Amino acid sequence: MLLVAAGLALSAALHVATGANGPVPGLAAESAFVGTALTVTGDPRRIDPAPTPGRRSSTLVLLPVRITHLTTDTGTAYDLGTSATVMARPHTPADLDAWLGLLPSEHLLVSGRLESPRGGTRDAALLIAQGGPHMVGGPSVVQSIAGSLRADLRDAASGLPAEEAGVLPALAVGDVSHEPSDLADALKRTGLAYLVVVSGENLVFASAALLPVARWVGLRGRAVTGAGVVLVLGFTVLARPGPPMVRATVMSLLGFTASLSGRRFRALATMAAAVLLLLLIDPWLAHAYGFALSAAATAGLLIAAPGWCDRLLDRGVPLWVAGPAAATAAAELFCEPLLVTFSGSLPLISVPANILAVPAAPVATVLGVGAMAADAVSPVLGHAVAWVAQWPVRWICLVARTGSTLPGAAIGWPSGLGGCGLLLACYMAGWRLLSRGGRPRPPGAERGGSPPQTGTGLDKIGLVSV
């Protein structure tokens, strides 16, 4: 334990020192005007600020980048590798399209003013762009294919109503560029926002759809496991490696490694190893809200959900109700101490909302991926598959919008560490009360004994990358 703590502390110190020692923080403190060579490291994000009286609202674009070369207005040049964010305010539709059309791995020339970063990020600076981007290279072949496929999915969904057209790409590959903001709020209020954050769940859905194909073409044993590795890596590039997706990917790869080596697979130990490995590589992930929630929800699914599901089944609850209810309650239980710290509210509608909406999620995800593949072959076929996919998407949207308007869908709760501590105290009190009614079954215990979690192939992705 002490060795792990020392490793994390050393890694964090090296990352902080690297970010603080370059010339960029000093230039940002001076609001220096610079010319930069950049490499795009993520997708552009469009922000439409709410209009204020007497001031016209203008669209902003935020773009994560890595500064590879910088030249100041005095002619001093630096070769760097510093992370930053570009903030652009396009003045014409053409400029807006140019910024929003950028893909990861593209190389740009951008001039602008450096400012200190905002919001406690890993970035060394915020670059306020002057003018549009000038592309000088890229994207890579892999990112070009991924960007083309994401565009195919948006094209396939373009004939649907605006809400379904924006949510289908989000459910399938995490593309929230056209997701309505009011629907995003409804999804958060009902505890369904995780459906449009691509993580291990999407890997489960994709593997469930591709497993029959892998077996149909004759793959068996280690070959199926190899196909699973390709699927995981390919889907990660397609859906973008955000913090939850990175956690799911590393967890999957560790599980596949255990399968190939013939070792016994332990899902909880695999999750802990994945989180530890990622924090050693990138300590800033501990500051990522999505990463923390992803790890907490996965822990809940692995530790508490199986035992709770068994209890519900013992009491005659149907599996289609017991499964989503136990999974949702377990994930919420582990995530709420983090959620109340920032949000100051407790969602009470999330469990019934998930019971109603979750059965439609795998159908929508698989059909969305199918529409993307079909549109790459024939736009007419892509539109046809997307038309079918809109119905499960419409149901999820209906559940979110209806649930978010119900009285008491969420209640106020103290935020910050005080609210987190109060909720944990309520957990302890509830546990003591429940313990008096009888000794609970250990979480994760299976009726009739728990079979060893071993095996190979895509059928294990559900356990590996929850």
Series of secondary-structure elements, N-terminal to C-terminal: HHEEEEHEEEHHHHHHHHHHEHHHEHH
Mean pLDDT: 80
Give the class from helix and strand content and strand pairing: alpha+beta
Share of residues in strands: 5-15%
* Distance between the ends: 26 Å
Sheet of most strands: 5 strands, mixed, barrel
Tally of helical segments: 18
Instruction: Give the CA-based shape.
Output: globular
The helix content, as a percent range, equals: 55-70%
Poorly predicted residue ranges: 2-6, 8-20, 442-465
The tally of strands reads 9
Strand order of the largest sheet: 1-3-4-6-5
What is the radius of gyration computed over CA atoms, rounded to a whole number of angstroms? Answer: 24 Å
Number of domain units: 2
